[in-house]
Amino acid sequence: MTQAGKTVLVTGASSGIGLATAVGLAKQGAHLLLVGRTPARCAEAMAAVRAAGDGRAHVLEADFSSLAGIRALADKVRSRIDRLDVLVNNAGTLARRRTLTADGYETIFAVNHLGYFLLTGLLLPVLRAAERARIVTVASEAHRSGPLD
């Protein structure tokens, strides 16, 4: 399967499943927008994606624990592209202790759920501009490692 000519945004692209997804899509010819939180890891991801085949890849830094940060990310994306063929919602976090975001939401819920929902809604105009856009949301089984309180 080829992704040549497709524009794909991958969140959490600086490591793990997100990075593997981005590298695989670069090998298939996709043009990538890589989203990550840590500048050094984003630079490493960019190098890997460019080596795999996407010399035009771009990195966008964003912290999914901040709703304002997600809004700023969506603004950056919409200012760069007029069409998004695939949105891969992959960014995620896991914490041992309960913490709250600056917006007052529990951190894991904010990053792993609210962030995807907000970003997807904000990017609907560029997704609808694509002929057959796809939204892929990655999940894990990390919830199985602890009890629900």
In the sheet with the most strands, the strands line up as 3-2-1-4-5
Tally the beta strands.
Answer: 5
Task: Give the overall shape, derived from the CA principal axes.
Answer: globular
Q: Helix tally?
A: 4
Would you tell me the structural class of the helices and strands? alpha/beta
Order of helices and strands: EHEHEHEHE
Largest sheet: 5 strands, parallel
What is the rounded distance between the termini? 44 Å
Extract low-pLDDT stretches: none
Our Rg estimate from Cα atoms comes to 15 Å
Average pLDDT reading: 91
State which percent range the strand residues make up: 15-25%
Fraction of residues in helices?
A: 40-55%
3D structure, described in words:
- Helices cover 42% and strands 15% of the residues.
- It is α/β, with parallel strands linked by helices.
- The protein is globular, with a radius of gyration of 15 Å.
- It has 4 helices and 5 strands, in the order βαβαβαβαβ.
- The mean pLDDT is 91.
Jot down its keywords.
149 residues; alpha/beta; single chain; 5-stranded parallel sheet; 42% helix; globular
Concise account of the structure shown:
The chain is α/β, with parallel strands linked by helices and 149 residues long.
Task: Please write out the topology.
Elements: E1 7-11, H1 16-27, E2 31-36, H2 39-52, E3 58-61, H3 67-80, E4 86-89, H4 107-128, E5 134-137
Parallel strand pairs: 1-2, 1-4, 2-3, 4-5
